[in-house]
User: Which sequence fits this backbone?
């Protein structure tokens, strides 16, 4: 592959995560933005850490007016069934920091913010973590169906020959869980909502799999092509508010839109995902995570 992706997209084994989302100041000069991003990317922690950066459409156009990947756009709100909806809170810059230590992440994000606060306003400041054996706070293993190895590259990266090759389209959403409501369900009822067994994440089969389960609504093929994405989500929160920071990478933005429409009952069949009864998105942004080469060029 001639256009190498940002390595952190595919890194495994880290257990501590941090997410920063910025809105650029309208009067910030483009050279100053480039300098701030370049300095932020150069930040290193006391222990190994990785940072992935992604740009909203307006920020990418501002820093790199020569080209953009086909299909990149701002997120838009989505109205679903029974009053459930997805907001649009499109921001300009996303930093995803990951390591094995919370203190290392804090060291890195404080340094990143020292540069970024000169050109942007911090809109999201969120720490995530691995919960038990990679479970969501609802108790189910997250990302079981993620593609592996070469299939992960195919699902997540814009192919060679296309504009933005080696980069990735990104969807980020902060979901707030209603755990008291979800926990009133029996284990069998919870498994019907998710579409997998709770202890060992085995997919339900046949008549045991409801058409309204999360798996049913997100395991989708169009014209024989599976709409695979690479999920890199992590739980976050406190006693008062907790949930999942959903973070996913795809070779085309269209896949995100279709999956969201299917979850919220906005597709042709009008069926919705029962999981949205127990968790709601409070942020939603589309991004472009450029290849390493393109990132160096846009920051130079």
Assistant:
């Amino acid at each position: 592959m001639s256009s190498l992706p940002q390595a952190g997209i595919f890194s495994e084994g880290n257990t501590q995560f941090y997410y920063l989302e910025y809105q650029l100041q309208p009067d910030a000069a483009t050279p100053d933005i480039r300098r701030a991003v370049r300095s932020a990317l150069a930040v290193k922690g006391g222990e190994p850490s990785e940072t992935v950066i992604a740009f909203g459409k307006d920020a990418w156009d501002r820093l790199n007016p020569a080209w953009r990947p086909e299909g990149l756009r701002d997120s838009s709100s989505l109205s679903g069934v029974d009053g459930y909806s997805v907001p649009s809170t499109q921001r300009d810059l996303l930093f995803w920091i990951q390591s094995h230590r919370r203190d290392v992440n804090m060291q890195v994000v404080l340094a990143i913010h020292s540069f970024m606060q000169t050109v942007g306003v911090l809109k999201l400041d969120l720490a995530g973590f691995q919960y038990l054996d990679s479970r969501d706070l609802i108790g189910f293993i997250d990302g079981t169906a993620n593609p592996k190895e070469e299939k992960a590259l195919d699902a997540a990266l814009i192919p060679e020959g296309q504009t933005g090759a080696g980069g990735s389209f990104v969807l980020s959403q902060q979901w707030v869980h209603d755990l008291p409501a979800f926990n009133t369900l029996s284990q069998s009822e919870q498994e019907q909502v998710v579409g997998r067994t709770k202890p060992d994440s085995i997919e339900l089969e046949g008549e045991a799999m409801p058409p309204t389960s999360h798996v049913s609504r997100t395991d989708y093929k169009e014209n024989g092509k599976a709409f695979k994405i690479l999920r890199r989500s992590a739980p976050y929160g406190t006693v008062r508010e907790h949930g999942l920071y959903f973070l996913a990478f795809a070779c085309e933005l269209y896949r995100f839109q279709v999956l969201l429409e299917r979850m919220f009952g906005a597709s042709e069949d009008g069926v919705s995902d029962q999981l949205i009864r127990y968790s709601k998105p409070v942020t939603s942004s589309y991004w472009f995570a450029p290849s390493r080469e393109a990132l160096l060029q846009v920051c130079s």
User: Anything to note?
Assistant: The mean pLDDT is 96. The longest strand covers residues 120-129.
